[in-house]
Amino acid sequence: MDNDFILDSGKKFVWDVLGGTGAIWGSSEVVCLRNCSNQPLWRYISGGAGCIFFGFYLKERIKTYETREK
Question: Which keywords accompany this UniProt record (predicted)?
Answer without folding.
Answer: Membrane, Transmembrane, Transmembrane helix
